[in-house]
Every structure is written in structure tokens, then in C-alpha cells.
Amino acid sequence: MPVTEETRTKAREIIARYPRPRSALLPMLHLVQAEEGYITPDGIGLCVEELGLTRAEVGAVATFYTMYKRGPTGEYLVSVCTNTLCGLLGGDEIYATLREYLGVGHNETTDDGMITLEHAECLAACDHAPVVTVNYEYFDNQSEESAVRLVDDLRAGTPPRPTRGAPLCGFREISRQLAGFLDERPEARDAVSIAEPGLAGLRLAVERGERAPEYPEATLATTERKEA
Amino acid sequence: MPLTPVLTKRWLEPRSWELESYERLDGYRALRAALAMRPDEIIQIVKDSALRGRGGAGFPTGMKWGFIPQGDSTPHYLVVNADEGEPGTCRDLPLMMADPHALVEGIVIAAYAVRANFAAIYIRGEAVHALRRLQYAVREARQAGYLGQNVLGSGFDLEIVVHSGAGAYICGEETALLDSLEGYRGQPRLKPPFPATHGLYSSPTVVNNVGTLASVPAIILGGAAWWKAMGPEKSPGTSIYSLTGRVTRPGQYEAPMGTTLRELLDLAGGVREGRQLKFWTPGGSSTPMFTAAHLDVPLDFDSVAAAGSMAGTAALMIFDDADCVVRAVLKWTEFYEHESCGKCTPCREGTYWMTQILRRLERGAGTKEDLDTLLDTCDNILGRSFCPFGDGATSSITSSIQYFRDEYLAHLDGGCPNHRNRTLVGAH
Ligand SMILES: Cc1cc2nc3c(=O)[nH]c(=O)nc-3n(C[C@H](O)[C@H](O)[C@H](O)COP(=O)(O)O)c2cc1C
Ligand code: SF4
Ligand code: FES
Asked: I need a surface site. Which of B32, B35, B292, B306 has the fewest CB within 10 A?
């Protein structure tokens, strides 16, 4: 399917953000992925035309990065962290359970087109291990049972709220956001951004009345006087 | 050792991420003060503070800024490394989600100091909610006049672009990041020349980590001496320590540099009940592991180096006596194999072969010679790879064989004594 005019306009908006056009290539690949859920030949064509590159140049970049998918991706990309820490704390079992339960392997999609499963590397949420993300929103502290419930809910059309992050949207919409187009949903703007582990040290500090030294008045006086 | 929330201090505020909350709690005061100074005065304060980069290498930030040529006519750039992908590392994302304006303010001050009019935040692609938070924050800051043309009437212009990566750990390495930001495969560049002279588009560029830049507003407000009052002389300030794994209360604990694991474990309720500390990383999977013998090593750049590892990203992954070190090392090595960018032979081939050998060892089909081959391979990678990724790939292997050779040997006959019949998944 040829890319839409809207997508072409958006591509040009992306290019305009940067001092040099080629810097737009990664976001443009996210953008074309938003069309059909993967990097299509037509999507590559758009990058070729708008950036004056060859197909080989664009293809070489697209294949380097794991988040660009080479085949149709489900409505929900379910990523299970199986790096060491999550893996040892239960991520390996969660992945094995989902693989069996869904009957798909790494980077494969269920027949109903709803779920693509993958094992992922560390998702920078190790204090919430084991971690699963759906379209890159965090579902923290998962277990085999909770992960099965999660995919059931996704397939039933009743996606649960992430532990941290905005209410789920589809894989294509997330790809559009990754291209740098802001999520304007109020519920995304207000979404929970931090959970208990992130606050553990701060809570303890408050409880114990511990804090960093105050800013010295003398420094504030000299730095802020200049401004006056 | 008291807790010293500086970077984390606003995280409990309701809607801590909004401009209004930030302004209520000192937000953008430092920027006003900074804009009243000359750029070189700001660089001097940061030099005097002895702030060292939080991205892993601990490079002195003021010195890095000072390398940017002054008075030339080429454009300068500031690039923020928000790629956070080092296994175990999980402090930049919460910072950007809970308090994105601290980073934005740090960026504006840094850009003014190095005379950059364009800044890019390169954030790992998987971090979609942190991406949103940054985008909202940039928008709010622009509307309030902290960004854009003529920032707060100072005559200084700055644009910030938030740029998502696409899933490649190597793009955290600063020159690979720059290639990726220019629209290429993310592969490291030869250094020298360094980004300070040949960075983004071959122009003078500062690349700084999220935590480094978010520390800057506090340093401007408190002054160099205030920052240096916390932590050791040569490695001062506060650090967000991320305690993860087999601890009672995993999470982020901000304390002075040089805090020990013993003290931090005490705060986090210790290793999970009934278990003993076995091995841990002081700064992520690329830093040689420590054991219970290292509980009292002050966790700052110099002390950790003196004890044979690296402070890295203060990612303290804790494992206990129920965890198999061979399995842990295999999984890390699979990670390096998967993420090797392929540019140089020792790393590309070496990580492949090390994974093969470790798989064999883990399932009980290895031999004693395999251990020597592993160490030999590490020898051929360490110091012989194109970028520090290769060195990092050997860290857990050599250090684990150093401390746990017997456990490797116990695997030779029938696999892991603790984990028989486990299936293993991960990057293959
Ligand atoms: C393989 C590899 C991965 C890295 N990943 C990151 C990263 O995710 N975030 C980061 O800030 N620095 C990372 N670094 C360090 C950067 O190369 C660079 O030193 C840092 O961004 C400089 O910022 P700082 O001086 O503020 O610490 C990585 C380095 C290597 C070798
Ligand atoms: S050491 Fe590894 S990651 Fe670094 S350049 Fe060589 S192949 Fe690439
Ligand atoms: S190891 Fe799973 S999020 Fe870090």
C-alpha cells in the first residue's frame, strides 16, 4: 500500500525539526511503521524519496535496530524482559509460559493478529522485576499468572492500565508517537509516572528527616543578585 | 550516612512532572541565575564542583564543557544521552518520568554555557512514557519562555528536539549515538577526534548523561562548595543508587557518592529473608562483579576502581546464594552477543563463541578446558576491541571465574546443581 499524503506531510514535518535532513531517518522509520505495523517496501520508498537516499542505505539502517519490525506486528507487542535480573526473578518462566499459552515464538504473532510476543533485553525497570511491557508501557512485578491474565485481557478487548504509563493504544499509534508526535490524550498526560520502588529512598529520607544540606544563603545571594 | 535527595527530592510531589510543581520547588531559579552570568563563569562553577559524568565513565563535566572551542563561528551542539540500556540501570527513566523539568533546565544551562543553540535528547525507543513526559515538559518550558527564541529575554536561543532511538544498546556509546542521531546504523566512531571538536555533524558537541545534566541546576543554586560537601573530594555529590534483585525493598536510593553496599542494603531491608549475599554488580553488567567481601567498598568512581571494578551507573544488582552465577553470566553474555554492533572482529566473533561455551557449561556439557578457552577469548577482546563495549562483555566472565571457579567446575558434571531441568530463554 502506498503511503498516504498525510504520512508524507508528517515526514516533512520531521525533517524540518533537524539541522540536517538525514537525522530524520529514525523517526521517519517509526512513522512508516505506524502505517502498516512494520517497515514496508513502500515505507522505505518514502524515506528514499524524501531524504534522497538509496534503498540500500535505508534498508541498512532499518535492519540494524530491533524495534523496526520486518513483518506485520500484532495490535499489542508484548515484550518480556529476559535479561539476567528479570530472567532470574521469573522473567524466563513468564516468557516460556506465554510462548506456550499463545503458541507463538519470539517475534511471532497470534493468528487473531492481536499479540506479537518477544523476549526483550533490560528495559530499565529492574527495580520492578520481573517486567513486561505492552506497546512499551510498563507492567511491573509480573508473575506467570498475571502475564497470562494480561494477554487474556488484551485479546478480550479489555486492555488493563499499565502500572506506569498511559492507557494502552495500538502498536501503530505508539509507532506514530515514537516518530515524535505528542500523545494529546489528557489521560496520557495525567498517567502515573512513578511507583513505589522509585520512591523507596525518598520516602525513607522523609520518614527519618534526612536531607541534603540546604543551599547556602551566601551562594544564592551572589548568584541571584546578578540577575536582579 | 544520611540520605541526600537532590535529584529525587521532588518525586513525591503531586504531579511532580508539571512545570507548576517544578517552579514551586526552586524550578528555573538556577536558569535565571545562570543567564545573568557569562558562559565561562558557569563552566568554572561546574569545574569547581568536580561534578563527574553519571553515564558510566565519570569524566569531569566542567572539563568536558571547557573543551568546546569558544569564539568560533561553527554551530555547537548539546546531545543528551538518555539511552539507558546498561543491564541493571534504571535511574534515568524514573528521573525523566517524575521530574523532566530538572533535565530540561540542566540542558538550557549547559547549552548556554557551551553556546549551543540546538540540543537533542536521544532517548531509548522503548521508553515511551518518558518520551511523553519530556515532550510535555519541552512544550511547557517553551510556552513559559525558558526555551526557544530569546530565552527569558537574554538574547540566547535554544531549540530542543526529543529523539527516540529504535532498540540498540550500543547507541548509548556516545559516538554510536551520534551516528544514530545523524540517521545511520549506530556504530561507534574512532576516537580521537572526540565529540568536543568533531561531534554531531562534525561540529563541537557535548554529550552528557541525563543525571549529569539534571545535577547542574542544583549545583548552580547551591554552589560548588555545597556540592562538594557531599561525598569524597574527587568524586563528590549525590548519586542515585539503584538497588535491584534479591533485596527486600528494591528501588532508587539517593545518597552521597562513596556510600557502601552495606549501608545501602541496610536502607533497603537487606537481602531477601533467609538468604545470603552472593554476588553483585557495582555499576551494571559491564562492571566486574563483587562479592560479600566488597560490602564496605565506598561506591564512588575512584574507590570502586581501586577495588578492581568500575562505579559505572550505580546499578547494584544483588544476587543471593540461590542464584547460579554461571546462568547469570551466560544470560549477560547472550545480551552482549545480541547487542554487539558487529564493527570489529574480537567483539563480534568473541561474544558469539563465549556464548556457545557458556551454554555448554551451563547445561553440564562443558569441560575444564572450556574455562581456559573462555579466559583466553576474554583476553583477546579486552583492550583489543574498537569500543568499550567489548571490554564490558568480558567483565562478568573474568570476574565470576575469579571468584566462583569452583561453581563452574561443579557444573561440569550434569549442569547446575541448583537449577537442574530449568529452561533458559533469552537472546539467541
Ligand atoms: C556500550 C556503552 C553503552 C553506553 N550506554 C550509555 C547510556 O545508555 N547512557 C549514558 O549516559 N551513557 C552511556 N555510555 C557512556 C557514554 O559513552 C558517554 O560516556 C556518556 O554519555 C557521557 O556522559 P557523561 O559525561 O555525562 O557521563 C555508554 C558507553 C558504552 C561504551
Ligand atoms: S567492541 Fe563490539 S560494539 Fe564496540 S565496535 Fe566492536 S563490535 Fe561494535
Ligand atoms: S533486567 Fe529486566 S528491566 Fe532490567
From this structure: B306
